[in-house]
Amino acid sequence: MALIDNGVYVHGRRVETPKNLDETYRSLDAHGGIAWIGLYRPSPVEVASVAREFDLHPLAVEDALSGHQRSKVERYGDTLFAVLRPARYRDEQESIEFGELHLFVGPDFVVTIRHAESPDLAAVRRRMEAHPELLAMGPEAVFYAILDEVVDGYEPIVTGLLNDIDEIEDQLFGDSDDDALSRRIYELSREVINFQRAVHPLAGMLEWLRRGSEKYRIDEELQRSLRDVLDHVIRVNERVDSFRAILENALTVHSALVARRQTEAGLAQNDEIKKISSWAAIIFAPTLVGTVYGMNFEVMPELHWAHGYPMAIGAMAAFAVGLYGVFKYKKWL
User: 319 pLDDT band (50/70/90 cuts)?
Assistant: First the structure.
């Protein structure tokens, strides 16, 4: 059932809980007050019913049906239409799960359309019903309470991202799999960017609402609440911006460390090649002398010379010692 919770409130107190939308319309006409309708993935027929009853703008209705909207707020006559992106952090996967919440706020109604499990609007409703004086301030009070709930839900995400970034910084200078660490930094950076897209528009939205408070005669207490939410959003934006900068720096540092390790490995390999080449050259010289006199030609004067053997051994030793000294001097050995 798309209708999750539904109430008609007079002077901040629930006077009726209609079972369907038609009963809600009749109850609102009978009692006055405000209607707070909570829908979860409603059908086009249900959204069309609400649109007809409250004269919602077709463009806003189209956005609510299609989903996948960016965070925004727009005014159509006496009705506010807002799109919020609630989110929650899944620590094991190091990913952020985004929801989508559409709100229609009019003079005597609030309609919420959720496309995901979050946020927990039941908690907002319970909190508002526990303070009838807040609900008595009208639909704007409900709207601001929902805004506050969505923004408060960002704090655990900030904490989760901070913990993961701390772990990455520890791994940067430790023994870790380079490929796995690079992937972790990249994927976390992608989550931070997506989070920025959800959070950054809120500051402009709230500032726009704040500027319109005087024109639409918003209660002073609600204006204070709005400023508090705006301050919270600004702090979250600053933290998220710093996270993105830290991750970009971490990726740069990681790339530099990987390059340095590869360079050191290459230098070590070059040293080994030098040693192998040096010993091969040292061994080659005696081998060459021995090979010449091992060809078994009959006409080789040195074969019948009394000092031929000592001279051959001496030549081999001289070549070997000479080459060893040269390579030692050049620090190849």
Answer: confident
